[in-house]
Amino acid sequence: MTYRYRLLALLFVDSFIVITAIFLSSYLLYDTFFIRQEALILSSFTLLICHHIFAMFYGLYQKAWEYASIGELKGIFNAVTLSILVTGFIQYFVFEGILLRALVVTWMLHILLIGGSRFSWRVFRDQYFNVKRDLRRTLIIGAGDAGSMVARQLINNKDTELKPVAFIDDDPNKAKLQVYGVRVVGTSDEIEKVIDNFRIEHVIIAIPSLDKKGLNDIFEKCVNTKVKTQILPKIEDIISGKVSVNQFRDVQVEDLLGREPIELDIESISESITNQTVLVTGAGGSIGSEICRQVSKFDPAKVILLGHGENSIYQIDMELRQKHGTQFEIIPVIADIQDRDRIYDVFENYQPDVVYHAAAHKHVPLMEFNPREAIKNNVFGTKNVSDAADHVSVGTFVLVSSDKAVNPTNVMGATKRVAEMVIQAKSKVSSTKFVAVRFGNVLGSRGSVIPLFKKQIQLGGPVTVTDPEMTRYFMTIPEASRLVIQAGSLARGGEIFVLDMGEPVKIVELAENLIRLSGFNLEDIGIKYTGIRPGEKMYEELLGEDEVTNKEIFPKIYIGKATFNKNINIETEIKKLVESEEKELKSKVMRLIKRDEKNIYSISN
Fold it and tell me: Which family does the entry's similarity section mention (predicted)?
């Protein structure tokens, strides 16, 4: 029905209801339809006109009544009440008296008939137009605001394939209550029993406040039943309009392994970034691009996107321009950090205030076969960028390092430790504050094991794991990037910042979770152990024994200040590496780290 015909129909129905309410109240009170005829006619005319005016004012003719709720009921109440009050005022002004009882009864009948006419359409639609067959019986975990919102969306959405049949909630006050006709049937300890008793075919976790441990516990119970389990989108994505509340997503391995996000010190970060020129090396990479996204939230004056790969720089450049427009200046720079002259030109041209150095070669086995490239990029490249930063007096320089720099057994880790030594030496003689940030494996990054596992699962398996006891620390890309930015605001010079990454995770457990999250059984895909690869360690560390401090400098952030061996001249050692043969590089860089094992450490809190 078009809006015009719909409006005419509602005007006709409402006019009939108003007249009916007045005459019916007269009959109920006085057993006749005609008392004081002139008063009845004037009251009817006044109430009719007022109703249409106030109905228009409160938008009662523009509402989609098939979705009527409390808000629409309030509009009806206000329109009817104001109409009755104006009618009573007219009665008093014309007849010097008010038919109070008649108006009260008319008011009640008026609300009942108007409300009934509107809400009956919703009942009729739900009963006859939204008949859904072959819907998947769905259990909603969480009967709070989010869960009730999900239930309502599923009930009202005629296109969904899900039918809510039960709630799970640990709040004892909600036990056996109904939300939109769906009953709370148990607690999280009874998930498997409820799924069996109610023949559940789909589970939706709708608890935005649920922490990682709680989500893990619930997911383990759901996955044991082999019922598909999904989770409510992030509340911020729903509020921002990126997704709707009924666009559920699969539980991801990041949801199970990530820690609760660190709370940033917004004030200190704003002071260090707002209206400043920020340069990010490796800006097209997983970590570098996320640093750019995070930095962009703090209103910098300029963001310089420096990288070697033109396609990746183009992508982050376009993303930031689409999201932030002309809010600040975005400058894409194609440059290789190994090209010393080019790096100096960039720094002299743009005069950055803050530098985040994320460019590096990070693949452990690959760097074992290409030690010169690891040294050129991770060591020489870091020296070029740090020298250029010192040359133009950059305020803060943050090196993105790795947990593999601790007691390194591979070329990649050794080169990252030498890179730390480079900036620590520089911090002794420079006005620039040089710091490093160490963290473990980053979930979802290009070198992460997860993309490999996913590909192996898609091909039908098996998933390859090096050793059943292999463990690693894991963090998400946003988490790592926030730590880097926070470290820049906390920098005093020479520190190594480390995130509290919780307990290390067994790689085999990660593989098992990923298989189950993909909807397969472990028996279907299988896990194959291949043995430790060249350069790999069974477990990783974040700080050496002498670096460990029990005091947080910031919530979930620790700091260890290590001064490398005073007998080591880093400039001389780098020159030796430049002049070395390819076959000597690994042994020479390892010997340099061994000489540094007798470091003199001091802890800074």
Answer: Belongs to the polysaccharide synthase family.
